[in-house]
Amino acid sequence: MTSHPFTQATARELYRTEERLAARTSALHRAKTHGRPVADVIADLALEYLPACPPDVVADIGCGRGTTTRVLAERLRPRCLLAIDASAAMLAATQVRLAGHHASFLQADFHALPMRDAVCAVVVAAFCLYHAPDPRRVTTEISRVITPGGIAIMATKSIDSYSELDRIVAGAGLDTDAAARESLYGSAHSGNLPDLLPPGLGMAHLEHEEHRFTFRDPDHLAAYLATTPKYRFPSGLTGDPVPLAAALRAHWGDKPFCATSTVTYLVARREGAIG
Ligand SMILES: C[S@@+](CC[C@H](N)C(=O)[O-])C[C@H]1O[C@@H](n2cnc3c(N)ncnc32)[C@H](O)[C@@H]1O
User: Fold this and answer.
1) For 31, how many CA atoms within 13 A lie in the half-sphere containing its CB?
2) Closest residue CA from atom 19 of ligand 1
3) Which tens digit of pLDDT belongs to each residue from 175-190?
4) 1 burial class (0-12, 13-18, 19+ CB within 10 angstroms)?
5) How far apart are CA 178 and CA 269, in angstroms?
6) 213 C-alpha to center of ligand 1: Å?
7) How far is CA 113 from CA 108, 142, 265, in A?
8) Could you give the CA distance from residue 266 to residue 154 in angstroms, rounded to a whole number?
9) Domains in the chain, ordered, with CATH?
10) Most ligand 1 atoms within 8 A of CB, residue of 131, 157, 264 to mutate
11) Three-state DSSP class for 151?
């Protein structure tokens, strides 16, 4: 069990509204210089490993704003698509993004999925398992709801993702302990993801891809840093990109900042006779 800002009860606060995640995703997308679109990779893997297509029931757990969910709807065309998240605001955003697609939206904790046993042909868990204080409980739940022969596709990040930013933040005197603080991805990361699989869920595919980012100047980097709960900035700077950018610029000048993250994809198949 791990405990830090991404797994504590206060993590719920991060997803109380859509704005923080939208700002974070937008800053990262604008900075990205290398790495395939994650939702497309997940859909490609689903199509490659699915026992039958179109699948009957597909669930996207921790669906966030529904960016992956929509690609699953468009590319897999399941009979039934379940978007599941703990946050009502995220589900509302997903519902807007999925307009015109047939889907159900369920507010639930992924430690106790609101489905019967063995109903899903595919369960996707993208960039959400690192919010679980006990991710093995979540993967056990995922296994429970998958049909025999069905698959889980999990995506997460390396434990050292964006660690270059720790040095930039510390160097500017904004949080001198930044590099010593626990990674936000410590609960479920590239290194431990295979170990989180419960008995009965066998790994079929494991793949790592380096994603590279260049934040073009202090304003761009501050837009991302303001959404990151890892840092303990001086009072007045937390969550506010304007003074953060000014503080970064005062130390580093007007320059670009680079960072990397490894994205890991794991496909696991539920063992047992296909009914
Ligand atoms: C980074 S977002 C996920 C992004 C999304 N899967 C995608 O591919 O774009 C993480 C999501 O996990 C959800 N989450 C965190 N803890 C959860 C829990 N215990 N049960 C269900 N959802 C949870 C958050 O509300 C948030 O929407």
Assistant:
1) 28
2) 109
3) 999 999 899 999 999 9
4) exposed
5) 38
6) 22
7) 7, 8, 22
8) 5
9) 11-159+182-211+262-270 (3.40.50.150)
10) 131
11) strand
Say what percent of the chain tops pLDDT 70.
95
* Residue 116, token pair as written in the block: 């019967």
Give the three-class secondary structure for 32. strand
Give the amino acid at 154. Answer: M
Q: How far apart are CA 123 and CA 84, in angstroms?
A: 10
Q: For residue 184, what is the enclosing H or E element?
A: none
Which atom of ligand 1 is nearest to 124's Cα? 6
- The alpha carbon of 253 and the centre of ligand 1 are apart by a number of angstroms equal to 35
Query: Which residues in the chain land under pLDDT 50?
Result: none
**CA–CA dist 132, 135 (Å, integer):** 5
pTM: 0.95
